[in-house]
Amino acid sequence: MDLKNDSLISEFVLLGLTSIWILEILFFAVFFLAYASIMARNSLIIIMVIFDSQLHSTPMYFLLANLSFSDTTISTITVPKMITDCLSEQKTISLWGCMAQMFFLHFLSGSEMTLLIFMAVDRYVAICKPFHYTTIMNHQTLIGFVLLSWAVGFVHTMSQMALTVNLPFCGLNVVDNIFCDLPLVIKLACTDTYVLDLLVIADSGLLSLICFILLLVSYTVILVTVHHCSSGRLSKALSALSAHMTVVTLFFGSCIFIYVSPFSSFSVDKFLSVFYSVITPLLNPIIYTLRNQEMKAAMIRLRSRHDTSRQAL
Fold first, then answer.
1. Tens-place pLDDT, residues 130-171
2. Exposure pattern of 90-99 as b/e (b: 16+ CB <10 Å)?
3. Side-chain half-sphere exposure of 147, counting CA atoms within 13 A
4. Which of 157, 62, 42 is nearest to 115 (CA)?
5. CA 116 to chain centre
6. Counting beta carbons within 10 angstroms of the beta carbon of residue 240, is it exposed (0 to 12), middle (13 to 18) or buried (19 or more)?
7. How many CB atoms sit inside 10 A of residue 167's CB?
8. How much is the pLDDT for 25?
9. How far apart, in Å, are the Cα atoms of 129 and each of 55, 230, 272?
10. Going by C-beta distance under 8 Å and a sequence separation of 6 or more, which residues neighbour residue 163?
11. Residues 6 or more apart from 296 whose CB is under 8 A from it?
């Protein structure tokens, strides 16, 4: 990928969510508290999985730790800039800063979509093939899942950024969003981007749609299997999966609408961007782990170990 760019502009202007000062202060407070919560909760999950032997050896929590890492990184790429822009009159980002933001955002989003599929596979094996669970979901399989998710994310972002990075930008430089995103930035190029627009729809849009359909199918199979095995467990499984599907729908629904829907508008896109950059990373720890009894037990063990270490000192 040639990193030379013949653009006449060196920065983009981000319009953000609003230009009303009172609302800017409100969004500053909301985004600041949301980012602090995202970092604290997801970092806690990662630390717990790393230092608690029981969680570390459990496939589901190994995948959850990787999901938390992805969530914290996606938020770090977007939210701090959103927070500082709320207090800035000139919301600007450099040309290469914009390119880097888009690269890592699509890299991590593509990886997270794939990881969510593997997490659904893990739940399917645990519920539908419990006697073969430890054999199927072994350490090598988990490492393969994580590496494959990163590989999918890398191919996903490179297939689009390899063409985007050399686009010439010589006129308008106003991005009507809270951060740089491919569809909006591509429209500002001083050249015909019809083919690249189709590539973004086929790549980002179809990847989101296919992953979402696969997740729906996997959850349906799990519910049907649980119903056949034990109708009493159906309500419990339905309660757990409905919470998962709420977050999955927010994440994938916003991506599908932005990259596929012909009725998408800039004003709607801005608020949908908040869902997969702020809301989803905020809800994932609550939905997947912090309501889980095993995670609560691990917190107690970690606190007891910390108290014992302090007493020993």
1. 888 888 999 899 999 999 999 999 999 998 898 888 888 887
2. ebebebeebb
3. 6
4. 62
5. 10
6. middle
7. 18
8. 93
9. 21, 14, 37
10. 196, 199
11. 290
**Encoded amino acid at 280, one letter:** T
Query: Please, is 256 exposed, middle or buried when counting C-beta atoms within 10 Å of its C-beta (0-12, 13-18, 19+)?
Result: buried
Which residue type sits at 197?
A: D
For the residues 226-251, what does the mean pLDDT come to? 68
From CA 300, how far away is CA 267, in angstroms rounded?
45
Under the banding of pLDDT at 50, 70 and 90, the label for residue 262 is very low
> What does the pLDDT look like over 93-135, one tens digit per residue?
999 999 999 999 999 989 998 998 898 888 888 877 888 888 8
List the single range of 82-86, 259-263, 301-305, 308-312 with lowest mean pLDDT: 259-263
Q: Tell me if 287 sits within 8 A of 241, measured CB to CB.
A: no
Per-domain boundaries in the chain? 11-312
Quickly name the fold that domain 11-312 has: Rhopdopsin 7-helix transmembrane proteins (1.20.1070)
| Residue 307 CB-half CA count within 13 A | 6
Q: Which pLDDT belongs to residue 239? A: 62
- To the nearest whole percent, how much of the chain has pLDDT over 90? 25
Question: 140, exposed or middle or buried, with CB in 10 Å at 0-12, 13-18, 19+?
Answer: exposed
Q: Which residues contact 299 (CB under 8 A, 6 or more apart)?
A: 48
Cα dihedral 222, 225, 227, 229 in deg (nearest 10): -140
